[in-house]
Design a protein that fits this description.
The protein is α+β, with helices and mostly antiparallel strands and 227 residues long. It is built from 5 helices and 13 strands. The strands form 3 sheets. Strands 5-13-6-7-10-9-12 form a 7-stranded mixed beta sheet. Strands 1-2-4-3 form a 4-stranded antiparallel beta sheet, covered by helices on one side. It starts with a strand and ends with a helix.
């Protein structure tokens, strides 16, 4: 297997690029390096940010530089990969009432399922946290079942509430802020992903598993945070 490319980014980061097309084997290599850096951080290491085919390694430029960090990364890559540790599983509650799921009927029509069939498929998904995106706590979950995999909509909508449960392709996510989206909105969750914890600010860690559980509107109204 070809070694990754090590690409300097600005003055304080190194991009470790394992490939250009999302692939399970490449993603496992990304996570293995992420674990290795966490277990044996080189001098000046600040954080690692995993994605599907690459890992961004941030460092303190007053302590180290691109060359030294690249050497440290190569040394870690040459070691046998440590096995993954225990995987945490988190429960995400979802209410699928029509006013909280404005695209549920459209997803049903596009897939040939009933709205309840879409919900059942969504609940059956084997979800895991693949990476974090552009907003705080914006966790991309892999594992959306094939029968409800649809492309993004042609145009994004603004002002989508926090807690909205979205699907597009093989991915699912729960929004944490009011934001625009072109994904299909099939429910809303009261589960709090953003946490008031400086050590672990998000409910999920990359690699964690997620289970969806359907809840009633009464449970949703009682569980959601006050505005």
């Amino acid at each position: 297997m070809a070694p990754p490319r090590l690409i300097p980014v600005a003055d304080s980061a190194l991009l470790v690029a394992f490939g250009s097309v999302a692939d399970d084997a490449l993603y496992r290599r990304v996570l293995a390096l992420d674990r290795a850096l966490a277990a044996a951080p080189p001098p000046g290491f600040a954080e690692a940010v995993p994605a599907f085919v690459n890992l961004l390694v941030r460092f303190d430029p007053l302590v180290t530089d691109h060359v030294a960090m690249a050497d440290a990364v190569r040394a870690l890559l040459d070691r046998p990969a440590a096995p993954p540790g225990p995987v945490a599983t988190h429960l995400v509650e979802v209410c699928y009432d029509p006013d909280l799921a404005p695209d549920l009927a459209a997803v049903a029509a596009a897939t040939g399922l009933s709205p309840d069939g879409v919900v059942a498929a969504h609940l059956s998904g084997d979800y895991s946290v693949a990476l974090y995106g552009f907003a705080p706590g914006y966790a991309y979950l892999s594992g959306t079942p094939a029968p409800i995999r649809l492309p993004r909509k042609a145009a994004a909508l603004r002002g989508i509430p926090a807690g909205s449960v979205l699907i597009a392709g093989a991915q699912c996510l729960v929004t944490t802020l009011t934001m625009p989206t072109g994904w299909s909105i099939i429910g809303r969750s009261p589960t709090q992903i953003l946490r008031n914890d400086p050590v672990r600010p998000f409910l999920f860690a990359v690699g964690d598993r997620v289970q969806m559980r359907r809840i009633s509107r009464a449970r949703f109204d009682a569980a959601r945070p006050a505005p």
